[in-house]
Amino acid sequence: MLPELLLQRGELEEAQAESEQDLVVARLARELLGTAIDDFEKQNQDPVIQHAQRLVEQVVPSWGTLMMTYPAGGKPTITRDSTSGRLLSDRLSDGARALLHLGIRLAFAERDSERRGLALPLICDDPFAHFDDDRTRGALELLRDTSKRHQVILFTCETGTRTLAADLGAHVINL
Predict the structure, then answer these.
(1) 153: helix, strand or coil
(2) Residue 49: which of 81, 74, 71 has the closest Cα?
(3) Shortest CA distance to 141 belongs to which of 58, 50, 49?
(4) pTM above 0.85, yes or no
(5) Where are the domains positioned within the chain?
(6) 37-81: per-residue pLDDT in tens?
(7) CATH number, span 45-167
(8) Phi (first) and psi of residue 45, to 5 degrees
(9) What's the confidence (pLDDT) of residue 87?
(10) 10 Å Cβ neighbour count for 86?
(11) Cα separation, 165 vs 175, whole angstroms
(12) Could you give the CA distance from residue 146 to residue 127 in angstroms, rounded to a whole number?
């Protein structure tokens, strides 16, 4: 009986060692495949997302990489991949999410303008409500640059935003 049990124990230990090796191989394969997928997604992003990233980086140079991902069976999601990790857009701070949405809107407007051959006006209603002073200034500079191709109408109730816009050359109309 003891020799049989020792034989079974040896077989089980051997099976366990094989399973542990298989697990190591599977984890390594998953990591390598994940890296390959990430690289492919970064290199093959939608042109609107690529342009939005460039716009956002004008305001926050260390922003990271914007990526549109397509989970199996789910709706497309936008993530921000940076040195601090990957975040879904709904996990960003209010200010970061507002900047992301502004960048996407401006990038889409540019693409639509190129497609139509017509630059429609852009109307913004206090898009900087969740921005700090540095981001507000950077985003206003972004709108100033955009105003070279589109008419930009910016509504704000913030005196500081209005003053800064005027300092950057905006024509201010008080309502």
Answers:
(1) strand
(2) 81
(3) 58
(4) no
(5) 1-44, 45-167
(6) 777 766 766 888 889 999 999 999 988 888 887 777 777 788 888
(7) 3.40.50.300
(8) -80, 155
(9) 76
(10) 14
(11) 16
(12) 15
